[in-house]
Amino acid sequence: MENHTFLDRLLLKVLKIPGALMIVPLFLGVMVNTLAPDILNIGSFTTALFKNGLAVLIGLFFLAVGSQISFKSALPSVEKGFVLLISKFGIAVVFGLSVAFFTPEGMLFGLLPLAIIAAMSNSNGSLFVALTSQFGNKTDKGSISILSINDGPFLTMVALGVAGLAAFPLLALFSAVFPMIFGFILGNSSTIAKKFLEPGEKLIIPFAAFAIGAGINLEVLLGQGSIGILLGIAAAVISGGAAIAALYIWHVIRRHPKQCRNLVSAASEASVAGNAIATPAIVASLDPSYLTIQSAATAQIAAAVVTTAFILPFFVAWLAAWQKRHGTTPENEEAFYEEKNANKERAATVS
Fold first, then answer.
1. Residues 348, 351: Cα–Cα separation, whole Å
2. For residues 266 and 79, what is the distance between their CA atoms, to the nearest angstrom?
3. What is the CA radius of gyration of the chain?
4. 311-324 pLDDT, tens per residue?
5. Which of 62, 231, 265, 285 could disulfide-link 140, Cβ–Cβ 3.0 to 4.6 Å?
6. pLDDT in tens, 56-103
7. Is the pTM of this model over 0.70?
8. Nearest Cα to 58, choosing from 212, 181, 188?
9. 346: buried, middle or exposed (CB in 10 Å: 19+, 13-18, 0-12)?
């Protein structure tokens, strides 16, 4: 039996917390900034890494994320990915902009449009893969190659910019997403580069999260941040509901048999990504008018991340069981695609 140190045992327990890699360092940064804010301002590499290094860390993170995005997927996976991506982003924009333009003071129960769009348009890729691996099939899991596009602030910035709620110079917008584009080019041009950059997705997250937390005060998190629980529930219900409806319509349009209309991937997409916590800081760096609400929006998103990480696995498990009782399973869907491909191959051989 392997001997673990006290720190090993502590970390093993901490890592069981949903979204631990992002949430725990974030809260540590918040505590340090609240109780001893000057400790991170001693200068040199300490301040550069733990206090002022957010831009560099996020740039490296986007480079790593981009390198793992691939379009070399089977057609059903690609189609599923686009259906879920468009439905999730679409409902996030509609809901967020409705709050911005049609509610008093541009807020709903204290929820900020920036937090709403950032939270509802980004999904937790790790949680998605874990849930689709357990309850779904290969096409469910494979759709992550398309859904990875919603990682980061790009879609949020597009929505805010088009709606006139933020001013992003074209060059500044391009510079914000170029690391992900560059990573995409590297990852799809070289398997060696892709494998080399893969660890960056996890390695950089806790350091970026701590730097984000180091800019938040606990009073803000417990105050305006607590409403983020409502944001998490809304993200699960509204964006999850839109994704489920869109995927079911896709099944109907594609004339898939009833027993093949598997919705596990749609339900698994109804989460809030941990990296969405960084979006307000990135938006504020490009449009300084958002600096006044950056901390509040970050706190709301952080609470939403934790909320969806806790409730989503239970919902996906329930949906998978409900489908099975009604004769629809991921296995049926996968068998349908395999038979369809086999028929195409036989037809091509005959011709």
1. 5
2. 12
3. 21
4. 777 888 888 889 88
5. 265
6. 887 787 788 778 666 555 577 778 888 888 888 888 888 888 888 887
7. no
8. 212
9. exposed
Cβ atoms of residues 344 and 337 within 8 Å: no
Confidence grade of residue 181 (pLDDT, cut at 50, 70, 90) = confident
Q: How far apart are CA 220 and CA 205, in angstroms?
A: 22
Identify the three-state secondary structure at position 36: coil
Question: Residue 153's closest CA among 62, 30, 261?
Answer: 62
Which residues have a Cβ under 8 Å from the Cβ of 138 and sit 6 or more positions away?
74, 77, 334
Cα–Cα dist 233/241, whole Å: 12
How distant is the alpha carbon of residue 335 from its chain centre?
30
Spans of all domains in the chain: 19-339
Nearest to 324 by CA among 273, 262, 267, 253: 262
Distance (Å, rounded) from C-alpha 269 to C-alpha 157? 20
Task: Find the length of the chain.
Answer: 351
The tokens for 340 are: 């369809």
Bridge partner list, 108: 111
Report how far Cα 268 is from the mean position of its chain's Cα atoms.
11
Tokens encoding 314: 């239970």
Average pLDDT in the 325-351 region? Answer: 75
SS3 of 111, please?
Answer: strand
The CATH homologous superfamily of the domain defined by 19-339: Na+/H+ antiporter like domain (1.20.1530.10)
pLDDT single digits (tens) 26-53: 778 888 888 888 888 888 888 888 888 7
Torsion on CA atoms 231, 234, 236, 242, rounded to nearest 10? -140
Residue-level pLDDT at 249: 92
Comparing CA positions, the residue from 228, 225, 179, 224 lying closest to residue 64 is 179
* Residue 124 backbone class (left: φ over 0; alpha: ψ -120 to 50; beta: rest): beta
- The amino acid present at 75, given as its one-letter code, is L
**3-state secondary structure (DSSP) of residue 108:** strand
